[in-house]
Amino acid sequence: MQAGGRWLFMILIVAAGGFFYVWYVNHEDDNAIVIRYMTWDSARGLEPERKIIERFEQQHPNIKISLEPCPQGYEDRVIVSLAGGKPPDVFLWWNYPRLVELGALEDLRPYLDSDTTISLEDFYPNLVPIVLYKGKVCGLLKDFTPAILYYNKDLFDAAGIPYPDSDWTWDEFRDIAIQLTHGDTYGFLVDARDIYTLEMWVWSNGGDLMSPDGDTATGYLDSKETIEAIRFYTELYTKYRVSPGLAERASMGGGVNMFITGKLAMFVSGRWPLLQLKRIKGLRFGTVLPPHPKGKQLVEIIYQSAQVMAKESRHKKEAWEFLKAMADTAAHRIRGEMGWAIPAYPEVVKRLGFDKDPIERPFIQAVKYATKKPIALRTVRWPEIERKIAYGMERIMLLDEDVEKVLKEVAYKIDHGLE
What we know:
The structure is a single chain. The protein has 419 residues and is of the alpha+beta class. Helices cover 38% and strands 16% of the residues. The protein has 17 helices and twelve strands. The strands form four sheets. Strands 4-3-5-12-8 form a five-stranded mixed β-sheet. A three-stranded antiparallel β-sheet has the order 10-9-11. α1 links the parallel β3 and β4. α16 runs antiparallel to α17. The longest helix is centred in the last third of the chain and has 17 residues.
C-alpha cells in the first residue's frame, strides 16, 4: 500500500476457474464506502466503464468503486460469491430468473418509485419488459443489441445481386443465399446450437419454443408454425447447402473470419462483431433487418445485460446511487460514443445519430419489432430447455431426422423432465 493509504492493490487467484484478475480502489479517504462492481467486460471493453466510474467518484467523493473484471468463468464466480454470502454489491447479469428464484437480487422497483432522477419510462418501451420478472425490476439496462443480418457487398456485387432492404421475405433471402453459394463460398451461416437466436425465426412465423410462462413445450415447440420455421431454417443447410458445416466453419476460422475473407456472404448476429468489421481495411459490408415470412412481420430477439444489486449488499443506498450512474443517459452516451454499445435511451440514440447511420440504423429499427420475451427471461429452466432443443437441432441437421418427429419428442421430454 502506498504511503498515506491512497492506493490499495488487490490480486485474486481462483484456481478452479483457471483465471486471475487485478483491481484497485483509490482511497483518497480511508473512511469512504467501497462498492464492489463485477463485470465480464475486459480489455478495451472496460474503457467506457472506467470513464463512467471516474465520473461517479468525482460526483460522490464519499464512495469508491472496486472494479472487478472477470472475463472467464463469470457466472460461476457470481454464483459462488452469492452462496458464500459475499457477493459484489453491483454486478452485470442477464439471466434474471435464475437469481430471482435464488432470492439473490434486490428488487429495484421501490428505489425507482421513490427516485425522480431515473425512470424506466425513458428507455425504449420494448426493452423494459426484459428486466422484469414476477413483478420485480431486476436491473437497469447497460446495453442491448437485436439480431441483425450482415452482408458482404463485394460478394453481392460480384453476383450482380442488389443489396437487400429491410422488408424482404424468407423466400427472397433463401434464393439470394443459393445464388451466393459456390465452391468454398457460402451464402449464409446456419448455427444449430444458437437456440436463443433461433427464437427470432420461430416467432416471425407465429410460433414459439415454449409457453408464455416458460413452463410448457407441448403445443408450442411442436406447433405447426414452429415446425414450419425450423424446417425452413434447417433446410438452408440440409437441403440447399448454403451454409458450411461445423468442421468446415472451424477450419476457416469461424463465421466472422469467413465473412472477412470473402467466404461467407451473410450471417446473423448482434452488434459484437461490428467494431472488428469496421477496422478491416477494404471490407465493404452492410447491415439489414433479418427477413420475415411472406405475409407476416419480423419479430426480433434482443440480447441484453443490466447492472443488478445483490440482495445481501451491505451498502444498498450507495449501491443504488452507483447503479443509477451506470445506467443513466450520460453512461449510455459514453458507451455509445466509444462505439461499444447501442444506447437504450431514444434521446441518446438521436443525439449520437445512430438512427441516421446506415450501419447502425437497422439496429435501431429492430427495436420496435422486439415484442416477445426470450425464454431465458421467462423461466429458470432455460439451460435445460436450451440443451434439449439444441440436441434436437443437431439430430435434424446432422442425422437428417424428420423435423416434426424430433420436435414432438423434445417437447415431451422437456415437459416430463426426461433426457
